[in-house]
Amino acid sequence: MSSASNSASAGGVQIQQSRRLPDFLQSVNLKYVKLGYHYLMTHLLTLLLVPLMAVIVIEASQMNPDDIHQLWLHLKYNLVSVIICSAFLVFGSTVYIMTRPRSIYLVDFSCYRPPSHLQVKFRQFMEHSRLTGDFDESALEFQCKILERSGLGEETYVPEAMHYLPPRPSMAAAREEAEQVMFGALDNLFANTNVKPKDIGILVVNCSLFNPTPSLSAMIVNKYKLRGNIRSYNLGGMGCSAGVIAVDLAKDMLQVHRNTYAVVVSTENITQNWYFGNKKSMLIPNCLFRVGGSAVLLSNKSKDRRRAKYKLVHVVRTHKGADDNAFKCVYQEQDDAGKTGVSLSKDLMAIAGMALKTNITTLGPLVLPISEQLLFFATLVSKKLFNAKVKPYIPDFKLAFDHFCIHAGGRAVIDELEKNLQLLPVHVEASRMTLHRFGNTSSSSIWYELAYTEAKGRMRKGHRVWQIAFGSGFKCNSAVWQALRNVKPSPNSPWEDCIHRYPVQTVV
Questions:
Q1: Which one is catalytic: 269, 287, 405, 407?
Q2: Residue 329 annotated to the active site
Q3: Catalytic residue selected from 319, 329, 359, 427
Q4: Which of the residues 111, 234, 403, 405 is marked catalytic?
Q5: What pLDDT does residue 507 have?
Q6: Candidates 420, 436, 476, 477; catalytic one
Q7: Catalytic site residue 257?
Q8: What is the 3-state secondary structure (H, E, C) of 237-281?
């Protein structure tokens, strides 16, 4: 993308630069492929037992009464064989039951839809920025260009404090924004699922830039009077990919604690993180970040399978923080005037590409069909071991997934992932339309995208969904879900009053 016509985004932020997202599928690291196969082999016992049990069932179904009588006579006079077989069956069954991971079900989720009076149009945004007196002409012109190229529409939302002149970014206003978003999403979730707050055993909240004391998770415990032994966690500073991290943490907790519910709340707080300076790389979040949040109800109860929407299949997390450039490519700091903002590195897109390459290389063996794995692995081995001049095989992820939820951090990253993963416009429609309607809502954007797919009536039983998000640090995280039924949108969906108008043509 040229710096004159595009801007690049990752981790919920966007920066102008001359480079495109690296063609990460043209060079892959063998160790990440091996890591993916390692994850696959952790379920080897299940993979072996399933065909074994199938063979036993088939053989048993073909036995006649005489065969059963002869088998009984044989076992009757061979007590040692009976004891050994029984011990083997009991031991094998016990090992399988104790080691198999519990299924994690997504019962339902809810996305917050702010009130209409918080909407901000481009002209209103620019007029307000000019009247504050904090930005010079160059900064105002830069913000105008970012808005025009961002992919955002005219109906996104900014918090109440930013509608005042002058703005009122106080701690009290930030708390009010957090309460409105989190409680709004949770109220709708509890109403739709008929789950009582007292039934929640695990609570995970993620918000990157706003971490008050008491914590956001404590605010939820206080509001809904959750039980005293609840296991609550508050994740901060983990960027726009923290929603997947929160799901992964909840999954691990549900593997340990039986017969319980987990709630994951993902949001970002804008009120106290608006940048009032003139450093251009710090102005971009003002143009892209908007109010939003989600609440997700997870369960490990087998009875919930009947009413759950999805089953969690895989979570793959990639962290590039050991590299100094990756660590600092999205960095919160003060500018020369002492004003705090998020600074973006010119290497942002290159680092995002490397993180994504690592993530999908690990994910590939877990989700791709055998035919794609064989072709991919054969060309990789030929290139790595024999230095063969063969063109790397690019796996077709459309064979593994029916729907894609790419974090709506900015238009450029969606464009580049569409091209590099060879996706069709319909595959990135949910991401583009979420960016247009709600803007970059940080870690919750992947849930607005899933809600869009449901509202369009496209989610059928057995469909697989790939949620992928980038975050500061630098991280790239993926979650894979499988639909357990033909999914309909839940009541009070964020798209309920506007889905008939989408998709829209976005003009740059």
A1: 407
A2: no
A3: 319
A4: 403
A5: 52
A6: 436
A7: no
A8: CCHHHHHHHHHHHHHHHHHHCCCCEEEEEEECCCHHHCCCCCCHH
- Predicted pLDDT at 238: 94
Q: How far apart are CA 408 and CA 448, in angstroms?
A: 9
Would you put residue 486 in left (φ > 0), alpha (ψ -120 to 50) or beta? beta
Q: State which amino acid sits at residue 194.
A: N
d(CA 300, CA 256): 10
- Count Cα atoms within 13 angstroms, Cβ side, for 483: 21
pLDDT of the residue at 95: 65
53-106 tens-digit pLDDT: 677 777 667 777 777 777 666 666 676 766 777 777 777 667 656 666 789 999
Decide if 436 is catalytic. Answer: yes
CA distance to 37, 313, 393, 397, per residue, from 373 (Å): 10, 18, 10, 11
- On the question of pLDDT at 44 being above 60, the answer is no
199 versus 86: which is more confidently predicted?
Answer: 199
Q: What is the pLDDT of residue 49?
A: 61
Decide which of 163 and 346 is more confident.
Answer: 163
Tokens of 186: 């949770």
Q: For residue 507, how many other CB atoms are within 10 A of its CB?
A: 6
Is 222 a residue of the active site?
no
Task: Please give the model's pTM, rounded to 2 decimal places.
Answer: 0.84
Q: Which of 140, 447, 420, 203 is nearest to 309 (CA)?
A: 447
Helices then strands, counting H and E runs in the chain, come out as 16, 13
Q: How far apart are CA 425 and CA 422, in angstroms?
A: 10
| Cβ contact 314:374 at 8 Å | no
Query: How many beta carbons lie within 10 A of that of residue 32, not counting itself?
Result: 19
Q: Which of 71-75, 107-111, 215-219, 471-475 has the lowest mean pLDDT?
A: 71-75
